[in-house]
Amino acid sequence: MLTPKQIALLREELHTAKNPIFFHDDDADGLASFLLLYRMHREGKGIIVKLAPNLGKPFLRKVEELHPDKIFVLDVPQVDQEFIDEAKVPIFWIDHHQPLERNNIHYFNPRLQDLNAYVPTTRMAWQVSENPADMWIAVIGCLADHYLPEFIDEFIEKYPYLLPQKGDLPEILFKQPVGQLVKMFFFLLKGPTSDVHKSIKILTRIKSPDEIMKQETAQGKFLYRRFEIINQKYEELLVQAKKSVPSGKLILFYYTEEQWSFTANLANELAGLYPKKIVIIARKKSGEMKCSLRAQFPILDALQRALVGINGYGGGHFNACGAVIKQEDWDVFLHNFKKELDHA
User: Fold this and answer.
1) Which residues sit opposite 288 in a β-bridge?
2) pTM (two decimals)
């Protein structure tokens, strides 16, 4: 969690920023973090960090184009030193992935103090924002990263139709209406760029989840309808993935680049439905296997050992990881990973 001094610093920097850029991850935690901080003063521009898990030299083009006075980086696992050095404006990086050493940057990561700490970026953004009207956004972002926030009772009291009572995370995420909103925050980041930008712009202005879930406004109806279209594609893949569930401990499901990318979402849901199994969802694209790995127990160490000598990379949280591996090395990686699991 952020300290009172860190919270005060970030609030002051946001308050005095005239033209900030918010670089955020392309998932629900990154989106919710951006919304919470942007909606405090509604200055600047949000940019999604897609394609790679790092903020590197290609993004300097946006800095040159937009001339920001400050940069806020949210839920992005890696910021290259080259980007920091060449951006030439103050950078505030709020993240919760594996800590890295960087110079000339304001770095906020609870794992710098405790390597085992698990605090979503949304939770820290909520410490800075604390706007009661935006509490629902904070809940969505936390739940999306499998974190049950301590203010969930306030959410239940205010929106009982979304979550009537507390339960475990799989129950909340996959059996309660609030789970639809969580999926929506993921799915609205998919599809044509113009639709994604329109969706995010609407989310910066939505005053309540009722606008969306009860379709009370034209903007809410647009978001809900777009979610329904994307969710239909997801549900079709989920049905296929469920058919691939074996009697053993490893669920392995493949799909191709010709289909929409739902790798992390499929992995999350299958891990919730089958808590005793390890889930690997792999999508073949451009000669690589882009995969998400999930379990209800730590698998990060096994992944990192399995990647030794492999043409690929990966990392993440203790029980929720991602990896990109060259297709020609996939079988060797898979053999290594299974071997590491057997030894664990």
Assistant:
1) 285, 326
2) 0.92
